[in-house]
């Protein structure tokens, strides 16, 4: 049976984990077969989950079970009888009960004095006098004093006297009424078995102080089909108490909840329900602020809401039977948001008035929406207006007075050319509903228009008929963020992308035909390419790596990358890391200005260097100085090189695809904050320095779409550089020339050793236990002009010298004799034709 959690008025934030509503403490010899059994039956009849222990034999294991039951109950019925105090077991229960009550105001004690005067219990007189006289002679006085105190405290609480003046039936009815009167909140965990759920139409009417009623099921969307087959004993019309403020019923099977709604209702949330309508006519609900009927697929009509003047949010997302929204919703003076996206049958949104408080209308993915006639005015500037993936062919005339929208979405249409400059911060585009032609033709026409010259973010959402992004995309001089979501026929991005001076974020998701990424602009800081299975060529992730900046570049499930592209990506990791640790030559003003203009889209919790890409062969091994062995795949212990130019290290780990299967268990609609990885670093030097620090990151995956689980299809490598972590480790040893110390024999020696221990970890949030296949580090040195460095490290050279050496005949003759591993390292250093004017660091041991 689904469990009730009931809470008393004192509860400010009632817990939701209690197993029982009521715990009964009694002496079985006095009341087991009479009053207590009748009381228990009445509680069960009223669907109050009750713990009662009829066992006569007691023991240690039973006591632990009772303590747990006491702590998991909310109301305690203590049946004081003539021999209650004679049971040390009962007194121990009472001590535990009163401790719970004193620690937490949520707990409620109801004493019942069964054929005994309350004063006898309170003062331990009458039959209790002789009982405690015996205790005083034979037991510890401290324990006896504790028992006396809890009896006094409990007997001072207002309760019920069963002394023959009223029948037992009347007293039991009064106890039930007192318990229900005390209830302010009811929480039912519907993830439990609900086959036995039985609710009478008047069940809640008997609870006049009930303020919150919650039937919570965070997996209601998964049970949608199953729940229709369940046989639940539910009424067709519930009578709800007028004090009820909050109603939550996930997956409600009823077609209609009630005909008389509580006038003090503040929030109504019934997602994934079978509700067809809320009410007929106008309903006076002056306190109602939120209506959430998300994915109630049988919801046929939005009711008249004119009697809800304080309504702020109406969420009707995924109500597939909804054909229109009542015009009264737009007349609400305090309405802030209307969500009707993914309403397949919705044909019109119209009204003669629009709330001045309106902040967002979300109506995308409504394929039959043909009319939008809501009078928008200049005061609505700054709102979110989503109309993409609809049947609208022309821009609504009511929106031309708007400006500075936060987000505007619409199907690709020539009418976009009519929008003014500074119209929206972000524009999202979709295919027209009847996409019979390549929308690239239309896009080529509209891109030069004023509205796109000032836009900061552009999203292409499910543009299945789009075959290319026109070269004129370079006209978007203010663009900082570009998303391509399921543009399945786009094979490459425009070469002019490198000319966008402010582009910082590029996200590409499930573009099935994408084969090539062109050279990208130097301003880019975030690149995320996800499930582009045909992507083969990456020309470069940086075009002019001259700026000291952070970077996050992710290639998830891009398993078709060729060898050259893989090398380019690895090369970029090194170049960006080298640039990050190089002291800036300018005064710093340039970087401060860049920081102010940055469009943040953080996917890691540290702002350094982070790359994710599929594993190919042994290339990563060749790039790193130290990597793990088969015996210890997630730990390293290494001596730090004694080099004054050493400034840190680059981390890497490889995790198998099998480690990510548990991601499917996570939330269905927002796959974010899932991939966690890092390293615990411990440094110990021979001169006594000890440092412990940690590098940790969470990779986030934010897509405004449903049902997209993160699924890693091959082994992937994480490579990252954490400047703060490296500084903490290197600070004690950098520049130290060695220290003379005396050994046990009194002789002097020089101490140069510093040992670094690294322990890597990775996994999903709340389950960071993925098995790491490999790990390693690469030492990072400052770029200084010098000859052959330690361990063969070469100096930094100019690009011209690299070209001269590359073109020499001797190099061509010797190329065939170079070992494959060394050739790979050198290939990472060769200046690419796409990297004009840059300086390349050769230190890739």
From TrEMBL:
<dbReference type="InterPro" id="IPR035897">
    <property type="entry name" value="Toll_tir_struct_dom_sf"/>
</dbReference>
<protein>
    <recommendedName>
        <fullName>TIR domain-containing protein</fullName>
    </recommendedName>
</protein>
<keyword id="KW-0433">Leucine-rich repeat</keyword>
<dbReference type="GO" id="GO:0006952">
    <property type="term" value="P:defense response"/>
</dbReference>
<dbReference type="GO" id="GO:0007165">
    <property type="term" value="P:signal transduction"/>
</dbReference>
<dbReference type="InterPro" id="IPR011713">
    <property type="entry name" value="Leu-rich_rpt_3"/>
</dbReference>
<feature type="domain" description="TIR">
    <location>
        <begin position="18"/>
        <end position="151"/>
    </location>
</feature>
<keyword id="KW-0520">NAD</keyword>
<dbReference type="InterPro" id="IPR000157">
    <property type="entry name" value="TIR_dom"/>
</dbReference>
<feature type="compositionally biased region" description="Acidic residues">
    <location>
        <begin position="801"/>
        <end position="815"/>
    </location>
</feature>
<feature type="region of interest" description="Disordered">
    <location>
        <begin position="790"/>
        <end position="829"/>
    </location>
</feature>
<dbReference type="Pfam" id="PF01582">
    <property type="entry name" value="TIR"/>
</dbReference>
<dbReference type="Pfam" id="PF07725">
    <property type="entry name" value="LRR_3"/>
</dbReference>
<keyword id="KW-0677">Repeat</keyword>
<dbReference type="InterPro" id="IPR032675">
    <property type="entry name" value="LRR_dom_sf"/>
</dbReference>
<dbReference type="InterPro" id="IPR044974">
    <property type="entry name" value="Disease_R_plants"/>
</dbReference>
